[in-house]
Each structure stands twice: as C-alpha cells, then as structure tokens.
Amino acid sequence: MTAPKPSELAFVPFVSVENMMRLVNRIGVAEMLSGLAGYIEDDFRRWELFDKTPRVAAHSKEGVIELMPTSDGETYGFKYVNGHPKNTREGLQTVTAFGLLADVATGYPVLLTEMTLLTALRTAATSALVAKYLAPSGADTMALIGNGAQSEFQALAMQAICGVTKLRLYDIDPRATAKAMRNLAGRGFELTACKTAEEAILGAQIITTCTADKQYATILSDNMVGAGVHINAIGGDCPGKTELHPGILTRADVFVEYPPQTRIEGEIQQMPEDFPVTEFWQVVTGAAQGRRDARQITLFDGVGFATEDFSALRYVRDRMQGTGLYQELDLLADPDDPRDLFGMLTRATGVAAA
C-alpha cells in the first residue's frame, strides 16, 4: 500500500450520524456487536502496549464532560463524551459523543466520527464480552434494571455473544420498560415486564444495572443477590454515582477495566483504596482466573475505558472502507509550502501580505 500524498492527508474521513446508522444497518446489529467485541478483546490482549490514564473530566452539578485518550504507539485515539442525566427531562440525550483516530507518525487525523451510537454499541459489546468470560455456563436469562437508551443494545449484545434469550425488564418509569419491550419484540427474546427490581432478578443468571441518575443509589441491596450470578454493573460511571449496596461488593469477585479510573467513578468508589479487584485484561490473557465455580458471584464494575473506544474506532475505520458511507472533511490546512501558512491565507482571501 503506497503512502498517501500530503494533499490527501488534508481531507479527513468523517462518519456522520446518518452514515453510522447506514453502516450499522448494512452490517447488521448483531454482527456489528460481535465484531466490536472481537476488536475490544484483541486490544485487551495487547493491553500493555497502550498509554493509559483516567479520563480527563470536567464535573458539574448537572453532569460531566470527558476526554478519553489512548494510543498503542502507532495510532492515537480519543473520545469526547458527556453524561447529563437531567437532559432526558429536557428532550435531550443523556450521552453524546464523537471520536477521532490519528496517525502517531505524522499527528494527522485519519478518522472523525459520531460516537453517540457507537458508544452505545461498544458499551454493550464490552458487557457481553466480559459476560462471556464471567457469567455462569449456559446462562440464558438476564434481568435488565434500567430500561433507558442503553438497554436494547445490552440485550442484543448478550443475545449475540452469550446466548441470552430471556429478559426480565424493570425501570422506575414504566414508559421506559414499555419502550424497551416494544423495541425488542420479535427479536428472539422471551420478554417479561416486571414491577420491581426484586421481581426482575428472579431466575436471572445475569443481572445488568444501567440506570442514569447521578446519585448514590441502591438498585440492588445485599440480600437481593444470591450465589452464582454475574452482575454487569455499568450505571455507576462517575464520582457520586453508584447502584449497588457495598455488601454485594464484599461478597463478589470484582473485575474492572482500569483500577485508577474505576476507583474514582465505579462501584468501588464506595470501598477502601486497597479493595481487591482483578483487571479484566488479565482474564482475557489467562494471567488471572475468571469464574471458578457455580456459586461464585462475579461483578463487572464497568465504567468504560479509552481502549474500548479505540477498538470501536478501529472497527469503524476498517468496516467503512469501500462503502462510501463517509464524507471527506477539509479539516486541515494544507499550504503548498508547509512554512507559509500565512501566505496560503492571504492568497485565498485576496488580501496582500503587508
């Protein structure tokens, strides 16, 4: 493959929301979730290559705005993302995002894309990938507590990757549950709408919590969780926001993405700084054990980490090739003489240099 000409590097492929939807529908939701999980798994296997840092966050009483950067030494990626639970009441999305990949050798961007849809897909793909390693063998029933924007993606990923066929849904807002039931109808699930969280977890081997309120909450109390389940706790994702009673954490084996970030934002922010956790990449590589026996409680304290977005950006970059589902943005200045940026400006505007 020949290196691109300097003039070609000035145009950055951009995947809009419309084209992301077209790409997902062309690939198929289930296939895309499985493909994303494969890329995420590959990058967990080479975890030690990545630059890692807790996300750079600007917190306010209304929510948070974050940058999530990482690099594997050849490619750099970042995501801009917000989390504002109040937005739903105003007719706005709780989470919006966009992301970028760049070539480390030149510093030039090679992809700019929407990531609101892509974040929902990669979050679900990560949850299902973790459950593939940690959930009880043969698990087919999931309790889905919190039926907002992420719920359908979680359900479909667990179906595609883990074989979940039965869903028990609960939300404090019955309209959210009705929405999820409607969207998931005809997709191969046995669906049950529940009136309480306690009812939802009956018979479930996997329990997913994905609520949105920015507060210390107890979605699951200690006495609700029996032996042998896998808990996919993804709603506690910023300081001051949790979903589980601390007693559950003390009885479970807790798995995380990147401890320095999770101790700030995840369920384990409730626990002492030396509370023991296992990094999930170690399970993927075989350096640590995942599920050991049928009575073990496994808990994924998932807050989302930059390598997962990096994986998702790589996936989109590879799958959009040849589809035409992107635009070329004139994003970067490209003077004929790299030292003469001002000359390019004045020639373009017709203003003579002084």
TrEMBL record:
Domain ApaG intervals: 1-124
Keywords, sorted A to Z: Lyase
Pfam family, one: OCD_Mu_crystall
MF term (GO), any: ornithine cyclodeaminase activity
Gene3D superfamilies recorded: NAD(P)-binding Rossmann-like Domain (3.40.50.720), ornithine cyclodeaminase, domain 1 (3.30.1780.10)
SUPFAM superfamilies (alphabetical): NAD(P)-binding Rossmann-fold domains
InterPro entries: ApaG_domain, NAD(P)-bd_dom_sf, ODC_Mu_crystall, ODC_N
Enzyme class: lyase
EC number: 4.3.1.12
Signal sequence bounds: none
Official protein name in the record: Ornithine cyclodeaminase
The organism of origin for this protein: Paracoccus zhejiangensis
